[in-house]
Fold this sequence. Notes:
Layout (H helix, E strand, L loop, with lengths): L1 H36 L3 H18 L5 H27 L1
Helix pairs in contact: 1-2, 1-3
Amino acid sequence: MSNMKMSLIGRYALFLFKLFSALCVGILFSVIGQALIHYRYFAFFFIFLTVSFAFFTMVKRLGFLGVLLVDLLFILMVVLMKVYIIIADSG
């Protein structure tokens, strides 16, 4: 009984982690698109939902470590974009 309960809690925690990651990636791409194209709220919400759903389906079969690796790659992308913006702005 205890092992089954822990398994259920683990699957639920993994689902929440994947959902949180998908929402973060969705908001990331929505903000980038809004900064580049200057679209309004409906397009922002549409891009947010579309990217979040696409990312969630992409990581559906991955485990915790796989999702963490994909998240770290996205964090690296964001840091590289920030460095590029700082360098391009100063030169």
